[in-house]
Write a structure and sequence with these properties.
CATH class: Alpha Beta
Number of strands: 13
Number of helices: 7
Oligomer: single chain
CATH topology: Rossmann fold
CATH architecture: 3-Layer(aba) Sandwich
Order of helices and strands: EEEHEHEHEHEHEHEEEEEH
Length: about 260
């Protein structure tokens, strides 16, 4: 009898955004995450709506084989980490927060592989009990990590600064180096690291740029930069996405073996 091997389902978090002439709310994720899932991770992308309290977290965790938390212009709501109110005009997405934070905690506990990118990285830290700086560029001695105002995407997403990677860490094993260059498109950054998380890389100004949940039964990592932007021309970005895909397939194989 022929055995059909199906691809893993990879959940991709969406934002709520207004589109069209009348500003209708939509659930949206960048095509970069979809393409990376299709072409590097080797999974089937499943967009997860930012439907707040209507999200069935238990069902998502039971059906999904991996989760990618996306970047976004919006900031995590400060009340979720007991921070001060945002400056007027700062975009927020409470419906997304209401989905992603419990989804993160559930994924970490259940061992569903998790890759958190940019805003997702910040959500990861908050979900695990950490806190955030809202504008790194306003802090003494910190770099401006925000998106350059540049219409050319190659310039906007180019490498902006170096990172020092912790020797022996998961990221070190994946990229095979202790120093790499990354893009930088964020205002928020980690203040207090969440319990159970460890820093795997830092920027020259000390900002934490990669984290991992040490006791999670599956891979649970976050990066502050965007490997999905340049995996076609950058081997390190590709390795990060491939390592996530490998973790997803490893868990599926373990589950299959346990079921036999």
């Amino acid at each position: 009898m022929m055995v059909v091997t199906m691809k893993p389902l990879i959940g991709i978090s969406c934002c709520t955004k207004l589109f069209g002439t009348y500003g209708m709310p939509n659930h949206a994720a960048s095509d970069t995450y979809v393409r990376a899932t299709d072409l590097v991770v080797g999974g089937v992308p499943v967009l997860l709506p930012a439907n707040g309290g209507h999200a069935d977290i238990a069902t998502l965790l039971a059906r999904l084989d991996g989760i990618i938390l996306t970047g976004s212009r919006s900031n995590v709501q400060p009340e979720l980490y007991h921070g001060p109110a945002h400056a007027e005009g700062t975009p927020e997405d409470p419906l997304r927060d209401a989905v992603t934070l419990p989804l993160i905690r559930g994924a970490v506990a259940a061992g569903v592989p998790l890759l958190a990118v940019c805003r997702g990285f910040q959500e990861f830290n908050v979900a695990m009990g950490g806190s955030l700086h809202q504008r790194l560029q306003d802090l003494p001695g910190r770099m401006d990590h925000s998106t350059p105002m540049q219409p050319n995407p190659r310039v906007r997403t180019a490498k902006a600064h170096g990172l020092r990677i912790v020797k022996g860490s998961w990221l070190h094993r994946v990229v095979g180096a202790t120093e790499i260059a990354v893009n930088s498109l964020h205002n928020e950054g980690i203040d207090q690291l969440g319990p159970g998380l460890v820093a795997e890389a830092t920027a020259p100004d000390g900002t934490i740029e990669a984290i991992r949940a040490v006791a999670a039964p599956g891979l649970a990592v976050g990066v502050q930069w965007h490997p999905e932007y340049d995996w076609e021309r950058n081997a390190i970005s590709r390795r990060i996405l491939e390592a996530f895909g490998a973790a997803v397939r490893s868990r599926l194989m373990s589950q299959s073996a346990a079921a036999d």
